[in-house]
Amino acid sequence: MLTKLTRWSRLKSPWILHLNTGACNACDIEVVAALTPRFDVERFGILLKATPRHADVIICTGPATRQMKDRLIRIYEQTPEPKFVIAAGACAMSGCVYRGAYNVIGGIDQLIPVDVYVPGCPVRPDAVIDAVVKLLNKL
Amino acid sequence: MNFQIPIGPQHPALKEPIGLRITVDGEIIREADLRLGYNHRGIEKLAESKTWIQNIYLMERICGICSHSHTTCYVQGVEKLMEIQAPKRGLYIRTLVAELERIHSHLLWLGVAGHEAGFDSFFMYVWRDREIVMDILEIISGNRVHYAINTIGGVRRDLDELQVKNILDSLSVLRKRSEYYLNLGTTEPSFVARLAGVGYLSKEDALALCAVGPTLRASGVPMDVRKDDPYAVYDEVPFEVCTADTGDVLGRTVVRIKELFQSYNIIEYLLKNLPTGPIAVRAPRRPKSNEVVSRYEAPRGENIHYIKSNGTEKPERLKVRAPTLGNYAATIKMLKNGFIADVPLIFAAIDPCICCAERAVAIVDARTGQEKIVSTSSLKQLKQNVSPNKERKREVVWPL
User: Fold this and answer.
1) CATH classification of A23-138, choosing from 3.40.50.12280, 3.40.1010.20, 3.30.420.40, 1.10.3210.10?
2) Minimal Cβ distance to A24: which of B10, B61, B125
Protein backbone atom coordinates (compact mmCIF):
# COMPACT_ATOMS: atom_id res chain seq x y z
CA MET A 1 0.00 0.00 0.00
CA LEU A 2 2.74 2.42 1.03
CA THR A 3 4.93 1.55 -1.95
CA LYS A 4 1.92 2.06 -4.18
CA LEU A 5 1.41 5.49 -2.66
CA THR A 6 5.03 6.52 -3.01
CA ARG A 7 5.10 5.30 -6.59
CA TRP A 8 1.96 7.27 -7.37
CA SER A 9 3.30 10.44 -5.82
CA ARG A 10 6.63 10.09 -7.59
CA LEU A 11 4.95 9.67 -10.94
CA LYS A 12 2.68 12.65 -10.43
CA SER A 13 5.23 15.23 -9.31
CA PRO A 14 8.77 14.85 -10.59
CA TRP A 15 10.39 18.07 -9.44
CA ILE A 16 13.39 19.06 -11.47
CA LEU A 17 16.57 20.93 -10.78
CA HIS A 18 18.18 22.63 -13.72
CA LEU A 19 21.95 22.59 -13.43
CA ASN A 20 24.28 24.36 -15.82
CA THR A 21 27.64 22.64 -15.73
CA GLY A 22 29.24 24.93 -18.27
CA ALA A 23 26.72 25.06 -21.10
CA CYS A 24 26.52 27.78 -23.72
CA ASN A 25 23.04 28.91 -22.57
CA ALA A 26 21.24 27.37 -25.51
CA CYS A 27 20.10 24.23 -23.70
CA ASP A 28 19.33 26.36 -20.66
CA ILE A 29 16.91 28.64 -22.47
CA GLU A 30 15.33 25.60 -24.09
CA VAL A 31 14.82 23.95 -20.70
CA VAL A 32 13.28 27.19 -19.41
CA ALA A 33 11.19 27.41 -22.59
CA ALA A 34 9.78 23.98 -21.71
CA LEU A 35 8.25 25.58 -18.61
CA THR A 36 6.57 28.41 -20.47
CA PRO A 37 3.04 28.31 -21.96
CA ARG A 38 3.78 26.74 -25.37
CA PHE A 39 5.17 23.55 -23.85
CA ASP A 40 4.06 23.97 -20.23
CA VAL A 41 5.50 20.95 -18.42
CA GLU A 42 3.82 22.09 -15.24
CA ARG A 43 0.62 20.34 -16.35
CA PHE A 44 2.43 17.04 -15.72
CA GLY A 45 3.36 18.12 -12.21
CA ILE A 46 6.90 18.96 -13.26
CA LEU A 47 8.15 21.95 -11.32
CA LEU A 48 11.49 23.70 -11.54
CA LYS A 49 13.11 23.91 -8.12
CA ALA A 50 15.86 26.18 -6.93
CA THR A 51 17.60 23.77 -4.59
CA PRO A 52 18.77 20.19 -5.06
CA ARG A 53 17.23 19.24 -1.72
CA HIS A 54 13.74 19.65 -3.20
CA ALA A 55 14.46 17.96 -6.50
CA ASP A 56 13.94 14.44 -7.81
CA VAL A 57 15.40 14.88 -11.26
CA ILE A 58 18.57 16.78 -12.12
CA ILE A 59 18.65 18.11 -15.66
CA CYS A 60 22.27 18.78 -16.52
CA THR A 61 23.21 20.93 -19.47
CA GLY A 62 26.68 21.51 -20.76
CA PRO A 63 30.01 19.72 -20.59
CA ALA A 64 31.47 19.39 -17.12
CA THR A 65 34.13 22.05 -16.70
CA ARG A 66 36.92 21.55 -14.15
CA GLN A 67 35.55 24.40 -12.09
CA MET A 68 32.14 22.73 -11.92
CA LYS A 69 33.37 19.20 -11.20
CA ASP A 70 33.26 19.32 -7.39
CA ARG A 71 30.07 21.35 -7.40
CA LEU A 72 28.32 18.88 -9.68
CA ILE A 73 29.24 15.96 -7.47
CA ARG A 74 28.20 17.90 -4.38
CA ILE A 75 24.82 18.81 -5.86
CA TYR A 76 24.29 15.17 -6.82
CA GLU A 77 25.04 14.13 -3.26
CA GLN A 78 22.70 16.76 -1.85
CA THR A 79 19.75 15.51 -3.86
CA PRO A 80 17.65 13.10 -1.79
CA GLU A 81 17.02 9.52 -2.97
CA PRO A 82 15.54 8.42 -5.30
CA LYS A 83 17.30 10.71 -7.73
CA PHE A 84 17.60 10.69 -11.48
CA VAL A 85 19.88 12.52 -13.85
CA ILE A 86 19.01 13.67 -17.35
CA ALA A 87 21.93 14.67 -19.55
CA ALA A 88 20.40 17.28 -21.85
CA GLY A 89 22.20 18.13 -25.04
CA ALA A 90 25.20 16.83 -26.90
CA CYS A 91 27.61 18.56 -24.50
CA ALA A 92 26.27 16.82 -21.44
CA MET A 93 26.35 13.54 -23.30
CA SER A 94 29.89 13.69 -24.61
CA GLY A 95 31.35 17.19 -24.63
CA CYS A 96 30.21 18.15 -28.14
CA VAL A 97 32.42 20.80 -29.77
CA TYR A 98 34.28 21.47 -26.54
CA ARG A 99 35.89 18.04 -26.63
CA GLY A 100 39.61 18.53 -26.28
CA ALA A 101 39.43 21.93 -24.58
CA TYR A 102 41.76 22.07 -21.61
CA ASN A 103 39.11 23.05 -19.10
CA VAL A 104 36.44 20.57 -20.15
CA ILE A 105 36.23 17.08 -18.67
CA GLY A 106 33.66 15.77 -21.15
CA GLY A 107 30.23 14.29 -20.68
CA ILE A 108 28.74 14.48 -17.21
CA ASP A 109 28.48 10.68 -17.09
CA GLN A 110 32.18 10.66 -16.26
CA LEU A 111 31.33 12.22 -12.91
CA ILE A 112 27.83 11.08 -11.95
CA PRO A 113 25.51 8.27 -13.14
CA VAL A 114 23.09 9.33 -15.87
CA ASP A 115 19.63 7.85 -16.44
CA VAL A 116 18.46 9.48 -19.65
CA TYR A 117 20.46 11.05 -22.47
CA VAL A 118 18.76 13.67 -24.64
CA PRO A 119 20.57 14.37 -27.90
CA GLY A 120 20.43 17.66 -29.73
CA CYS A 121 22.44 20.83 -29.95
CA PRO A 122 20.56 22.33 -28.28
CA VAL A 123 17.82 20.03 -27.03
CA ARG A 124 14.33 20.95 -28.11
CA PRO A 125 11.82 21.61 -25.32
CA ASP A 126 9.66 18.73 -26.59
CA ALA A 127 12.69 16.45 -26.31
CA VAL A 128 13.05 17.46 -22.66
CA ILE A 129 9.42 16.54 -22.03
CA ASP A 130 9.95 13.23 -23.83
CA ALA A 131 12.99 12.53 -21.66
CA VAL A 132 11.03 13.10 -18.47
CA VAL A 133 8.21 10.85 -19.70
CA LYS A 134 10.71 8.10 -20.56
CA LEU A 135 12.21 8.49 -17.13
CA LEU A 136 8.81 8.12 -15.48
CA ASN A 137 8.17 4.95 -17.47
CA LYS A 138 11.30 3.48 -15.91
CA LEU A 139 9.87 3.86 -12.42
CA MET B 1 23.12 37.42 12.98
CA ASN B 2 25.61 35.50 10.91
CA PHE B 3 24.82 32.26 9.24
CA GLN B 4 25.81 30.49 6.07
CA ILE B 5 23.40 29.25 3.46
CA PRO B 6 25.48 27.09 1.15
CA ILE B 7 22.89 26.63 -1.60
CA GLY B 8 24.40 25.06 -4.69
CA PRO B 9 25.99 26.75 -7.65
CA GLN B 10 22.90 26.96 -9.80
CA HIS B 11 19.80 28.99 -10.25
CA PRO B 12 16.75 27.99 -12.27
CA ALA B 13 15.23 31.15 -13.66
CA LEU B 14 18.27 32.98 -14.92
CA LYS B 15 20.65 30.86 -16.87
CA GLU B 16 23.67 33.07 -16.51
CA PRO B 17 25.18 32.66 -13.06
CA ILE B 18 28.15 34.45 -11.61
CA GLY B 19 29.87 34.91 -8.27
CA LEU B 20 29.30 38.32 -6.69
CA ARG B 21 31.05 39.56 -3.59
CA ILE B 22 29.23 42.41 -1.98
CA THR B 23 30.22 44.43 1.09
CA VAL B 24 27.16 45.74 2.88
CA ASP B 25 26.51 48.24 5.59
CA GLY B 26 23.07 47.25 6.80
CA GLU B 27 20.92 47.21 3.69
CA ILE B 28 23.19 49.37 1.59
CA ILE B 29 25.84 47.94 -0.71
CA ARG B 30 29.19 49.61 -0.14
CA GLU B 31 31.49 47.49 -2.24
CA ALA B 32 30.90 44.95 -4.97
CA ASP B 33 33.24 42.48 -6.60
CA LEU B 34 32.66 39.96 -9.36
CA ARG B 35 33.97 36.42 -9.45
CA LEU B 36 34.33 35.01 -12.93
CA GLY B 37 35.49 31.83 -14.51
CA TYR B 38 32.98 29.20 -13.48
CA ASN B 39 32.13 28.46 -17.04
CA HIS B 40 35.56 28.82 -18.55
CA ARG B 41 35.85 26.21 -21.27
CA GLY B 42 38.97 27.35 -23.09
CA ILE B 43 37.31 28.19 -26.40
CA GLU B 44 40.01 30.59 -27.58
CA LYS B 45 42.70 27.95 -27.20
CA LEU B 46 40.48 25.29 -28.74
CA ALA B 47 39.90 27.55 -31.77
CA GLU B 48 43.60 27.45 -32.55
CA SER B 49 43.36 23.69 -33.14
CA LYS B 50 40.39 23.85 -35.52
CA THR B 51 40.15 24.96 -39.13
CA TRP B 52 38.49 28.19 -40.25
CA ILE B 53 35.25 26.41 -41.17
CA GLN B 54 35.15 24.27 -38.02
CA ASN B 55 35.55 27.39 -35.95
CA ILE B 56 32.22 28.77 -37.16
CA TYR B 57 30.50 25.98 -35.22
CA LEU B 58 32.66 26.59 -32.19
CA MET B 59 32.01 30.35 -32.27
CA GLU B 60 28.29 29.65 -32.45
CA ARG B 61 28.58 27.73 -29.21
CA ILE B 62 30.22 30.54 -27.24
CA CYS B 63 26.73 31.62 -26.32
CA GLY B 64 23.37 30.12 -27.09
CA ILE B 65 21.43 33.38 -27.03
CA CYS B 66 23.65 35.50 -29.24
CA SER B 67 24.99 32.62 -31.30
CA HIS B 68 24.48 34.46 -34.58
CA SER B 69 26.33 37.50 -33.24
CA HIS B 70 29.49 35.55 -32.59
CA THR B 71 29.47 33.70 -35.90
CA THR B 72 28.75 36.87 -37.88
CA CYS B 73 31.50 38.72 -36.08
CA TYR B 74 33.93 35.87 -36.76
CA VAL B 75 32.85 35.32 -40.35
CA GLN B 76 33.08 39.03 -41.19
CA GLY B 77 36.63 39.05 -39.88
CA VAL B 78 37.62 35.95 -41.80
CA GLU B 79 36.04 37.30 -44.99
CA LYS B 80 38.19 40.38 -44.60
CA LEU B 81 41.26 38.19 -44.09
CA MET B 82 40.44 36.07 -47.14
CA GLU B 83 39.65 39.20 -49.16
CA ILE B 84 36.26 38.00 -50.33
CA GLN B 85 32.94 39.81 -50.33
CA ALA B 86 29.70 38.02 -49.52
CA PRO B 87 26.94 38.58 -52.14
CA LYS B 88 24.16 41.04 -51.41
CA ARG B 89 21.41 38.46 -50.91
CA GLY B 90 23.60 36.58 -48.48
CA LEU B 91 24.21 39.74 -46.48
CA TYR B 92 20.48 40.50 -46.44
CA ILE B 93 19.68 37.05 -45.04
CA ARG B 94 22.49 37.36 -42.54
CA THR B 95 21.13 40.70 -41.33
CA LEU B 96 17.61 39.30 -41.24
CA VAL B 97 18.66 36.49 -38.91
CA ALA B 98 20.65 38.97 -36.82
CA GLU B 99 17.57 41.13 -36.28
CA LEU B 100 15.39 38.10 -35.53
CA GLU B 101 17.95 37.11 -32.96
CA ARG B 102 17.81 40.59 -31.45
CA ILE B 103 14.03 40.23 -31.14
CA HIS B 104 14.29 36.84 -29.48
CA SER B 105 17.00 38.04 -27.13
CA HIS B 106 15.15 41.22 -26.13
CA LEU B 107 11.90 39.34 -25.59
CA LEU B 108 13.79 36.83 -23.48
CA TRP B 109 15.27 39.66 -21.46
CA LEU B 110 11.90 41.36 -21.07
CA GLY B 111 10.49 38.16 -19.62
CA VAL B 112 13.42 37.76 -17.26
CA ALA B 113 13.08 41.39 -16.14
CA GLY B 114 9.42 40.76 -15.39
CA HIS B 115 10.36 37.66 -13.43
CA GLU B 116 13.05 39.49 -11.45
CA ALA B 117 10.62 42.28 -10.65
CA GLY B 118 8.16 39.72 -9.33
CA PHE B 119 5.79 40.00 -12.32
CA ASP B 120 5.67 36.35 -13.34
CA SER B 121 2.61 36.49 -15.57
CA PHE B 122 4.44 39.03 -17.70
CA PHE B 123 7.32 36.55 -17.94
CA MET B 124 4.98 33.80 -19.14
CA TYR B 125 3.20 36.07 -21.65
CA VAL B 126 6.42 37.34 -23.17
CA TRP B 127 7.93 33.88 -23.42
CA ARG B 128 4.77 32.57 -25.06
CA ASP B 129 5.15 35.15 -27.81
CA ARG B 130 8.87 34.61 -28.04
CA GLU B 131 7.98 31.21 -29.49
CA ILE B 132 6.73 33.05 -32.61
CA VAL B 133 10.27 34.30 -33.29
CA MET B 134 11.68 30.88 -32.53
CA ASP B 135 9.31 29.45 -35.14
CA ILE B 136 10.45 32.00 -37.71
CA LEU B 137 14.07 31.15 -37.00
CA GLU B 138 13.25 27.48 -37.34
CA ILE B 139 11.57 28.12 -40.70
CA ILE B 140 14.65 29.94 -41.97
CA SER B 141 17.43 27.83 -40.54
CA GLY B 142 15.97 24.54 -39.39
CA ASN B 143 16.99 24.97 -35.77
CA ARG B 144 15.57 26.98 -32.91
CA VAL B 145 18.70 28.24 -31.22
CA HIS B 146 21.93 27.49 -33.06
CA TYR B 147 20.95 28.60 -36.55
CA ALA B 148 24.21 27.67 -38.32
CA ILE B 149 23.22 30.02 -41.13
CA ASN B 150 26.60 31.70 -41.58
CA THR B 151 29.42 30.38 -43.62
CA ILE B 152 32.58 32.05 -44.82
CA GLY B 153 31.53 33.99 -47.88
CA GLY B 154 27.78 34.17 -47.28
CA VAL B 155 24.96 32.14 -45.79
CA ARG B 156 23.99 28.50 -46.09
CA ARG B 157 20.25 28.64 -46.67
CA ASP B 158 18.10 30.64 -49.04
CA LEU B 159 14.62 32.06 -48.52
CA ASP B 160 11.67 31.39 -50.83
CA GLU B 161 8.48 33.36 -51.41
CA LEU B 162 6.37 31.28 -49.03
CA GLN B 163 8.86 31.73 -46.20
CA VAL B 164 8.93 35.49 -46.74
CA LYS B 165 5.14 35.60 -46.56
CA ASN B 166 5.12 33.44 -43.43
CA ILE B 167 7.65 35.64 -41.70
CA LEU B 168 5.77 38.84 -42.53
CA ASP B 169 2.52 37.31 -41.24
CA SER B 170 4.03 36.19 -37.94
CA LEU B 171 5.76 39.53 -37.59
CA SER B 172 2.48 41.44 -37.69
CA VAL B 173 1.19 39.25 -34.83
CA LEU B 174 4.37 39.92 -32.91
CA ARG B 175 4.15 43.65 -33.49
CA LYS B 176 0.64 43.72 -32.08
CA ARG B 177 1.73 41.75 -29.03
CA SER B 178 4.74 44.02 -28.49
CA GLU B 179 2.51 47.07 -28.47
CA TYR B 180 0.54 45.44 -25.70
CA TYR B 181 3.76 44.78 -23.75
CA LEU B 182 4.96 48.30 -24.30
CA ASN B 183 1.71 49.50 -22.84
CA LEU B 184 1.70 46.97 -20.02
CA GLY B 185 5.37 47.21 -19.14
CA THR B 186 5.45 50.97 -19.07
CA THR B 187 2.13 51.93 -17.52
CA GLU B 188 1.53 49.14 -15.02
CA PRO B 189 2.16 51.15 -11.80
CA SER B 190 3.76 48.44 -9.64
CA PHE B 191 6.09 47.29 -12.42
CA VAL B 192 7.22 50.84 -13.18
CA ALA B 193 7.64 51.63 -9.49
CA ARG B 194 9.86 48.59 -9.08
CA LEU B 195 12.15 49.54 -11.96
CA ALA B 196 12.38 53.34 -11.76
CA GLY B 197 15.46 54.72 -10.04
CA VAL B 198 17.08 51.29 -9.57
CA GLY B 199 20.69 50.86 -10.69
CA TYR B 200 21.36 54.43 -11.75
CA LEU B 201 24.29 54.99 -14.12
CA SER B 202 25.09 58.54 -15.22
CA LYS B 203 26.11 59.42 -18.76
CA GLU B 204 29.66 60.30 -17.67
CA ASP B 205 30.08 57.04 -15.75
CA ALA B 206 28.68 55.00 -18.61
CA LEU B 207 31.25 56.48 -20.97
CA ALA B 208 34.12 56.33 -18.48
CA LEU B 209 33.45 52.68 -17.61
CA CYS B 210 33.02 51.64 -21.25
CA ALA B 211 29.48 50.34 -20.93
CA VAL B 212 28.05 48.94 -24.15
CA GLY B 213 24.71 48.24 -25.77
CA PRO B 214 21.34 49.03 -24.20
CA THR B 215 23.05 49.81 -20.87
CA LEU B 216 24.98 52.63 -22.52
CA ARG B 217 22.06 53.81 -24.62
CA ALA B 218 19.78 53.94 -21.57
CA SER B 219 22.23 56.46 -20.10
CA GLY B 220 21.60 58.77 -23.04
CA VAL B 221 24.57 57.93 -25.28
CA PRO B 222 23.44 57.15 -28.83
CA MET B 223 26.19 54.68 -29.62
CA ASP B 224 25.48 51.70 -31.84
CA VAL B 225 27.96 49.86 -34.06
CA ARG B 226 25.23 49.42 -36.65
CA LYS B 227 25.15 53.21 -37.09
CA ASP B 228 28.71 54.19 -36.18
CA ASP B 229 30.59 51.57 -38.17
CA PRO B 230 28.02 49.90 -40.44
CA TYR B 231 28.66 46.29 -41.37
CA ALA B 232 26.64 43.94 -43.62
CA VAL B 233 23.79 46.04 -45.07
CA TYR B 234 23.09 48.39 -42.19
CA ASP B 235 24.24 51.38 -44.21
CA GLU B 236 21.27 50.85 -46.58
CA VAL B 237 18.62 50.06 -44.01
CA PRO B 238 16.77 52.96 -42.35
CA PHE B 239 16.57 52.67 -38.58
CA GLU B 240 17.01 54.78 -35.48
CA VAL B 241 19.26 54.33 -32.46
CA CYS B 242 16.99 54.17 -29.41
CA THR B 243 18.06 55.92 -26.25
CA ALA B 244 16.63 56.87 -22.88
CA ASP B 245 17.86 59.51 -20.48
CA THR B 246 16.94 57.97 -17.16
CA GLY B 247 19.98 55.70 -16.79
CA ASP B 248 18.09 53.19 -14.63
CA VAL B 249 16.57 49.75 -15.14
CA LEU B 250 13.38 51.35 -16.42
CA GLY B 251 15.37 53.18 -19.09
CA ARG B 252 17.02 49.92 -20.12
CA THR B 253 13.62 48.29 -20.43
CA VAL B 254 12.33 51.15 -22.58
CA VAL B 255 15.39 51.06 -24.83
CA ARG B 256 14.94 47.35 -25.42
CA ILE B 257 11.22 47.60 -26.16
CA LYS B 258 11.86 50.48 -28.58
CA GLU B 259 14.60 48.43 -30.25
CA LEU B 260 12.08 45.64 -30.79
CA PHE B 261 10.02 47.96 -32.99
CA GLN B 262 13.13 49.09 -34.84
CA SER B 263 13.97 45.45 -35.51
CA TYR B 264 10.46 44.79 -36.87
CA ASN B 265 10.90 47.73 -39.24
CA ILE B 266 14.34 46.53 -40.34
CA ILE B 267 13.06 43.03 -41.03
CA GLU B 268 10.14 44.33 -43.07
CA TYR B 269 12.50 46.51 -45.08
CA LEU B 270 14.92 43.62 -45.66
CA LEU B 271 12.20 41.23 -46.80
CA LYS B 272 10.58 43.76 -49.11
CA ASN B 273 13.89 44.72 -50.71
CA LEU B 274 15.46 41.27 -50.82
CA PRO B 275 17.78 41.26 -53.86
CA THR B 276 18.06 38.26 -56.15
CA GLY B 277 21.28 36.43 -56.84
CA PRO B 278 23.59 33.95 -55.16
CA ILE B 279 23.74 33.65 -51.37
CA ALA B 280 27.38 32.70 -50.99
CA VAL B 281 30.71 32.81 -52.76
CA ARG B 282 33.38 30.17 -52.60
CA ALA B 283 35.99 30.85 -49.96
CA PRO B 284 39.67 29.94 -50.24
CA ARG B 285 41.04 27.35 -47.84
CA ARG B 286 43.70 29.59 -46.34
CA PRO B 287 43.84 33.34 -45.86
CA LYS B 288 47.05 35.31 -46.16
CA SER B 289 48.89 35.93 -42.94
CA ASN B 290 47.33 39.03 -41.50
CA GLU B 291 45.26 40.22 -38.56
CA VAL B 292 41.83 41.76 -38.30
CA VAL B 293 39.43 43.24 -35.75
CA SER B 294 35.76 42.67 -36.36
CA ARG B 295 32.95 44.60 -34.66
CA TYR B 296 29.30 43.65 -34.35
CA GLU B 297 26.33 45.05 -32.46
CA ALA B 298 25.00 42.05 -30.55
CA PRO B 299 21.69 42.35 -28.66
CA ARG B 300 23.75 43.04 -25.52
CA GLY B 301 26.19 45.51 -27.03
CA GLU B 302 29.38 45.67 -28.99
CA ASN B 303 31.00 42.36 -29.73
CA ILE B 304 34.64 42.34 -30.83
CA HIS B 305 36.64 39.52 -32.37
CA TYR B 306 40.35 39.79 -33.03
CA ILE B 307 41.60 37.20 -35.50
CA LYS B 308 45.20 36.60 -36.48
CA SER B 309 46.15 34.26 -39.27
CA ASN B 310 49.57 32.91 -40.18
CA GLY B 311 48.63 31.67 -43.62
CA THR B 312 47.68 28.14 -42.56
CA GLU B 313 44.34 26.37 -42.33
CA LYS B 314 43.96 27.30 -38.69
CA PRO B 315 43.87 30.67 -36.96
CA GLU B 316 46.94 31.58 -34.94
CA ARG B 317 45.00 33.57 -32.40
CA LEU B 318 41.36 34.28 -31.81
CA LYS B 319 40.28 36.72 -29.14
CA VAL B 320 36.66 37.30 -28.23
CA ARG B 321 35.46 40.31 -26.26
CA ALA B 322 31.82 39.60 -25.47
CA PRO B 323 29.57 42.59 -24.70
CA THR B 324 28.83 41.47 -21.15
CA LEU B 325 32.49 41.83 -20.27
CA GLY B 326 32.31 45.49 -21.26
CA ASN B 327 29.41 46.01 -18.89
CA TYR B 328 30.93 44.49 -15.73
CA ALA B 329 32.69 47.64 -14.57
CA ALA B 330 29.49 49.62 -15.01
CA THR B 331 27.51 46.96 -13.10
CA ILE B 332 29.75 47.35 -10.08
CA LYS B 333 29.16 51.09 -10.21
CA MET B 334 25.40 50.53 -10.44
CA LEU B 335 25.39 48.15 -7.51
CA LYS B 336 27.19 50.55 -5.19
CA ASN B 337 24.96 52.45 -2.77
CA GLY B 338 21.95 50.40 -3.82
CA PHE B 339 19.96 47.92 -1.77
CA ILE B 340 20.92 44.26 -1.51
CA ALA B 341 17.39 43.45 -2.61
CA ASP B 342 18.01 45.18 -5.95
CA VAL B 343 21.04 43.04 -6.85
CA PRO B 344 19.17 40.48 -9.01
CA LEU B 345 17.32 43.22 -10.87
CA ILE B 346 20.39 45.38 -11.52
CA PHE B 347 22.42 42.41 -12.54
CA ALA B 348 19.73 41.12 -14.86
CA ALA B 349 19.38 44.57 -16.40
CA ILE B 350 22.71 44.39 -18.21
CA ASP B 351 21.42 41.14 -19.70
CA PRO B 352 24.47 39.19 -18.58
CA CYS B 353 25.55 36.53 -21.00
CA ILE B 354 28.09 34.51 -19.15
CA CYS B 355 27.39 30.87 -19.51
CA CYS B 356 28.60 29.72 -16.17
CA ALA B 357 27.03 28.15 -13.15
CA GLU B 358 27.48 29.98 -9.92
CA ARG B 359 24.80 32.34 -8.70
CA ALA B 360 25.99 32.68 -5.13
CA VAL B 361 26.55 36.08 -3.58
CA ALA B 362 29.11 36.51 -0.81
CA ILE B 363 28.11 39.35 1.48
CA VAL B 364 30.84 40.94 3.58
CA ASP B 365 29.64 42.97 6.55
CA ALA B 366 31.54 46.27 6.41
CA ARG B 367 31.50 46.63 10.18
CA THR B 368 32.63 43.16 11.21
CA GLY B 369 34.37 41.94 8.08
CA GLN B 370 32.48 38.66 8.22
CA GLU B 371 31.40 36.92 5.05
CA LYS B 372 28.34 34.90 4.31
CA ILE B 373 27.13 33.19 1.18
CA VAL B 374 23.57 33.90 0.09
CA SER B 375 21.85 32.42 -2.93
CA THR B 376 19.85 34.44 -5.41
CA SER B 377 16.62 32.75 -4.33
CA SER B 378 17.03 33.97 -0.77
CA LEU B 379 17.93 37.39 -2.16
CA LYS B 380 14.65 37.36 -4.00
CA GLN B 381 12.86 36.49 -0.80
CA LEU B 382 14.62 39.42 0.82
CA LYS B 383 13.63 41.68 -2.03
CA GLN B 384 9.99 40.76 -1.61
CA ASN B 385 10.20 41.49 2.09
CA VAL B 386 11.95 44.79 1.62
CA SER B 387 10.37 46.50 -1.33
CA PRO B 388 6.62 46.75 -0.54
CA ASN B 389 6.76 49.06 2.47
CA LYS B 390 9.97 50.88 1.87
CA GLU B 391 9.76 54.52 0.86
CA ARG B 392 12.26 55.17 -1.89
CA LYS B 393 13.36 58.33 -3.58
CA ARG B 394 12.52 58.46 -7.27
CA GLU B 395 14.79 60.76 -9.18
CA VAL B 396 13.77 59.90 -12.68
CA VAL B 397 11.00 61.16 -14.88
CA TRP B 398 9.03 58.60 -16.80
CA PRO B 399 10.36 58.85 -20.36
CA LEU B 400 7.32 57.87 -22.41
Assistant:
1) 3.40.50.12280
2) B61
